[in-house]
Amino acid sequence: MSASYYGCWSTAETPSARRTELLNRIHKLLLELVPGGAKKYLSADQARAILATIRPRDLVGRTRRRLASELISELVTVDKKIKAADKELTELVASTGSNLRKPHGIGPSGAARLLGDVGNIHRFASRGHFASWNGTAPLDAFSGDQQRHRLSRAGNRRINRVLHIMAVVQLRHDTDGRRYYRRRLAEGKTPMEAMRALKRRLSDVVYRQMTRDAKPAEAAGPGGQRGATLQSSTADPNPQVNTSEQSLPGPADTHDMPQLPPAA
Predict the structure, then answer these.
(1) Angle formed by the axes of helices 59-95 and 44-52, to 10°?
(2) Which candidate, 210, 198, 196, 204, places its Cα nearest to that of 251?
(3) Tell me: the pLDDT tens digits for 197-234?
(4) Which of 248, 252, 260, 262 is nearest to 148 (CA)?
(5) What is the secondary structure of the chain as a DSSP string?
(6) Helix axis angle, 191-213 relative to 176-186, nearest 10°?
(7) pLDDT of residue 113
(8) pLDDT digits (tens, 9 = 90+) for 44-57
(9) How far, in Å, CA of 8 to CA of 26, rounded?
């Protein structure tokens, strides 16, 4: 599964990006048409049901309603394209024998992106190297006698985005990820710091799952050495990125999301 297959679209051209743009525009129009507005994340059917209750009499209102109706029709078309693409990507991911869809928050496109960009997971000597490569390993930052960590801007930003989406999805549901995030907040971390820690933890989850899925033959290259065969994206040929390989907050275990003791 080549990385180029999943990199054929820029972010601005993807159906998902277009869907987000359409939802934002529909939401803005409904705010101007409906007293009290409407929730931001609507399906096409929900938006259409709301629009059916609106009968503006003035020209501006009728124009806004017509624009909203046209955008909803386009949203339906985009949703069909996304559904078809997800089905194709699901089949492609399944054909590789990967179980990347098991961890909560990884969709078909995210799993395909991981397989395409990461290639052979055994080219990373450890989960710390993997986190350094994808930009979730924090960088040490000192301020006087105080030691903190700051966001790393290095690494593969496409994979970093997959992990970010995974974190957002976990926060929206009752998951170990959300409980972990709340524990970090209880420890005094800022929401941004807790989010960084969660993404770092999810990097370990992905690394562990891909290591489980990898065929034994992939662990050794032609010379019989672990990781001798490199399959990297053209944008990130070297897995040894010059960033901190620090693992936060502890070693990974066999669960999809490692359990931590309650915060003091």
Answers:
(1) 160
(2) 204
(3) 999 999 999 999 999 998 664 555 544 444 433 344 44
(4) 248
(5) --HHHHTSS-GGGSHHHHHHHHHHHHHHHHHHHSTT---SS--HHHHHHHHHT----SHHHHHHHHHHHHHHHHHHHHHHHHHHHHHHHHHHHHHTT--TTSSTT--HHHHHHHHHHH--GGGSSSHHHHHHHHT-SPEEEEETTEEEEE----S-HHHHHHHHHHHHHHHTSSSHHHHHHHHHHHTT--HHHHHHHHHHHHHHHHHHHHHHHS-GGGGB-TTS-BT-S----TT---S--SS----SSS---SSSS---PPP-
(6) 140
(7) 92
(8) 999 999 999 999 99
(9) 28
Task: Give pLDDT tens digits for 7-53.
Answer: 444 444 578 888 889 999 999 999 999 887 788 778 899 999 999 99
The string of pLDDT tens digits covering residues 165-189 is: 999 999 999 999 999 999 999 999 9
CA atoms within 13 A on the CB side of 154: 18
Phi and psi dihedrals of 146, rounded to 5?
Answer: -95, 130
- Name the token pair of 192: 């941004």
In angstroms, the first-to-last Cα distance of the chain is: 46
- 125 CB-near residues (< 8 Å, 6+ apart): 226, 227
- Spell out the domain ranges in the chain: 3-95, 98-264
Instruction: Report the alpha-carbon distance of residue 105 to residue 123 in Å, rounded.
Output: 25
Q: Which two tokens stand for residue 208?
A: 């562990």
Task: Provide the residue type at 223 as one letter.
Answer: G
